Amino acid sequence: MSMILINPSVPDRIFYTHLFARFVRERRRELRLTVSRAAELAGMTVSEWLALEAGWVPQDTDEIRTISETLEVRTSDLGLMSIMSACAQEGSVQ
User: Is the separation of the CB atoms in 5 and 74 below 8 Å?
Assistant: First the structure.
């Protein structure tokens, strides 16, 4: 039996790092929400929402919950994506 060591390549890390941001942006668009409206619903400023779509991954569970409510997705799903993204970011630090 052979074993495979999983060591994500740089492109994989970039993929996972931006997974959360891409999901948030695409889901907002599916719901036909403007950035300003999504920010307002989530109790965030427009600049905070733009940071979210640019790759900032919140670690606070309350922020994850309000974002998931805004995007009408399960908090657990969004939380899992945030953890995956945060781990990829940490893994890319040399």
Answer: no
- Which pLDDT tens digit goes with each residue over 37-78? 999 999 999 999 999 999 888 889 999 999 999 999 999 999
- Residue ranges of domains in the chain: 27-91
Side chain identity, residue 16: Y
pTM (2 decimals)? 0.78
Flag whether pLDDT at 90 surpasses 90. no
What architecture (CATH level 2) is domain 27-91?
Orthogonal Bundle (1.10)
